[in-house]
Specification:
Strand order of the largest sheet: 2-1-3-4-5
Helix content: 40-55%
Radius of gyration: 17 Å
Largest sheet: 5 strands, parallel
Oligomer: single chain
Number of helices: 10
Strand content: 5-15%
Length: 224
């Protein structure tokens, strides 16, 4: 089959998936030291904003943030090799799925989103990296996609992730139950602002940090 004007080039597809976003940072980072216990946080805007709002958490522990805003799970899967496997971490914390539910690339079955997340976990394991599978954070609305009412879809996706983690003896980090209000949204103003409802504020990230540290220690013990 020949390329046509309507067929995106491989370069365009790679750029669309954010493949070049962390290219220079990855090259500067280099391989881990023999005694380094490298941890990568991988995901979308919730992961991307985390080191911006809480930089001391990442610098203190030497954690590496590899989030790109708006990305859906198949885009994350495209760059998983470059932004996770190539960095040779001991642990990867995978937090994704909300943009699939927001239909950033159109309607996607929950099973397909879950399958992309599970593929990331399996790729990590095949390279000796321990995955931490995180629940999607609660949300009742999206500022950029009004009217979808995502709460039930988020709960259903989290059930799929939790079941998979249990079946395969992987770590499942349940942010959802710690941060949800009675309607299935992020608590306002505790963990997010009323004009956002999706991204945590500083207090939200601080709670997530308390939860993720114990999950990372457990994963590092498994890696060792």
């Amino acid at each position: 089959m020949t390329d046509t004007a309507d067929t995106p080039s491989p370069y365009a597809i790679a750029r669309y998936a954010g493949m070049a976003h962390y290219q220079n940072a990855n090259m500067a980072l280099g391989p881990p030291q023999p005694d380094e216990r490298r941890v990568v946080f991988f995901g979308d805007s919730i992961t991307e904003f985390w080191p911006l709002l809480q930089p001391e958490f990442f610098t203190q522990h030497g954690f590496i943030g590899r989030g790109i805003r708006s990305q859906v799970s198949h885009q994350l899967l495209l760059r998983f090799r470059q932004d996770v496997l190539a960095l040779q971490p001991k642990v990867v914390v995978i937090l994704a799925g909300v943009n699939d539910i927001a239909q950033n690339s159109g309607p996607v079955p929950l099973e397909q989103t879950a399958g992309n997340l599970f593929s990331m976990a399996e790729l990590a394991l095949s390279h000796g990296i321990q995955p931490v599978l995180c629940s999607v954070l609660p949300a009742i609305d999206f500022p950029w996609r009004r009217g979808l009412q995502p709460a039930e879809s988020i709960q259903a996706l989290n059930q799929l992730i939790c079941h998979y983690a249990s079946q395969h003896q992987l770590i499942y980090l349940d942010y959802y139950s710690q941060m949800a209000d009675q309607d299935g949204g992020l608590k306002v103003p505790d963990y997010t602002s009323a004009n956002d409802l999706v991204h945590p504020n500083k207090a939200g990230y601080q709670l997530m940090q308390q939860l993720v540290l114990s999950a990372i220690q457990q994963a590092l013990a498994g890696a060792d």
